[in-house]
Structures are given as C-alpha cells and as structure tokens.
Amino acid sequence: PRGPRSAMAGALRRFPWLCNVALYGGLFAAGDAAQRRWRGQPPDWAQTRRVALVALAFHGNFSYVWLRALERALPGRRPPAVLAKVLCDQLLGAPVAVLAFYTGMSILQKKEDIFSDCRQKFWNTYKTGLMYWPFVQLSNFLLVPVYLRTAYTGLCGFVWASFICFSQQSGDGTAKSVFMWLQREKLNADGESSEK
After folding, report:
1. Most exposed of 65, 80, 155, 180 (fewest Cβ within 10 Å)?
2. Long-range contact set of residues 14-19: C-beta below 8 Å, sequence gap at least 24
3. What pTM, to 2 d.p., does this model score?
4. Nearest Cα to 24, choosing from 45, 55, 65, 69?
C-alpha cells in the first residue's frame, strides 16, 4: 500500500499542472489565514477566498508556466544557468507577481483605484522579496526536480503569502512593518505579564 507522500508524488507526476496550482492556491490561502491568526484577528473568510482566487487564477498558473519557461530557456543545474534563472526570476517574474497580487486583490475588493496598493507598496514589497526569493529560487533551481518546482515555490510561498497579505491589509510592504508589529506584540505581552 502506498502512503500519502508517495500518492502525492504520483499525483504531481500524473497531473502536474492541476496539483501544483491547487497546492499554490491552498498555501496562499493558508498564509492569509495564518497572518490573521498571528495578529489576533478573527478569520476573514471572504478575504482568504480572495487570496485563494488570486493565487489559483494567476500565481499558481504563472509560476507553473514561468518556471518551465525558465528551464527551457536556461536548462540545467550548472552555476551559470542557475544564477541566470534566479536573476531572470527576480528581474522579470517577481515584479509581475507582486503587481498581479496587489491589483488582483484590489479588483476583488472592488476598490475604486485598483492601482493604489501597487503605487504605495510595490517597491517596498519587491525589495523585501529580494531578501527572500533569490535564496528560495537558488535552492529550487539547484535541488528540486522540474515537476516539483511550482509546488516547492508554493510551499515557500506560504511564508511570503503571510507577509504580502499582512502588507496588503495593514502594512507598507516592508519587512520593517512586520518586525515593528512583532515588537509591539512582544512589548504588549511583556507588559501584561509584569502587571500580574
């Protein structure tokens, strides 16, 4: 009998697009739900559905096609090819993904100015991503088989989704805004424990 892990690996091989996109959407939705929980906020299932929809409709599909296109254009795991893929991903793929997230969320939230979040948060979010994604993609292109790359990106995307959902809802797109929030939470917790 096959275990869940081998069943998942088999499904990813037989239905790579469907499994990768579904996993990506689920992990982005989980990232949104997690960041709300970490902030002590009640679940906002409408918001989480919007995040899942943007991830399913765009991010999962884009990642699947993009990572395969990079592999066709720059095949192999030799250092020059891997570094070129990381560079292309950060210069071309990352800006598209950030723009699509903020714009897609604004459309689904029926904001009057769908580019407002992009104008306010794009550069900060993109620069924050440069502290995370190059390392993710370096390991992805060096170690992960092509058919699992979108799934791996989605798994790492859980952390990113938590950050970008926080930024979209209450941050400014910087890692500093998250760290400031975490510091406030720690100070509040320390203050409450000293009062007891």
Report:
1. 80
2. 16/64, 16/147, 16/150, 17/64, 19/151
3. 0.84
4. 55
Average pLDDT over residues 76-97: 97
DSSP codes, the chain? ---HHHHHHHHHHHSHHHHHHHHHHHHHHHHHHHHHHHTTPPP-HHHHHHHHHHIIIIIHHHHHHHHHHHHHHS-SSSHHHHHHHHHHIIIIIHHHHHHHHHHHHHHHTT-SSTTHHHHHHHHHHHHHHTTTHHHHHHHHHHHS-GGGHHHHHHHHHHHHHHHHHHHHHT--S-HHHHHHHHHHHHHHHHHHHHH-
Q: What is the dihedral of CA 131, 163, 26, 116, to 10 degrees?
A: -110
Kindly report the length of the chain. Answer: 196
State how far the Cα of 107 lies from the Cα of 112, in Å rounded to an integer.
Answer: 9
Domain boundaries of the chain, sorted by first residue: 17-195
**Cα torsion angle, 143, 145, 148, 149, sign:** positive
List C-alpha distances in Å: 137 to 35, 51, 192. 23, 22, 41
Q: Please, which residues have CB within 8 angstroms of residue 65's CB and are 6 or more apart in sequence?
A: none
Distances (CA, A) of 36 to 33, 83, 132, 165, 187: 5, 35, 21, 9, 19
Decide if pLDDT at 160 tops 80.
yes
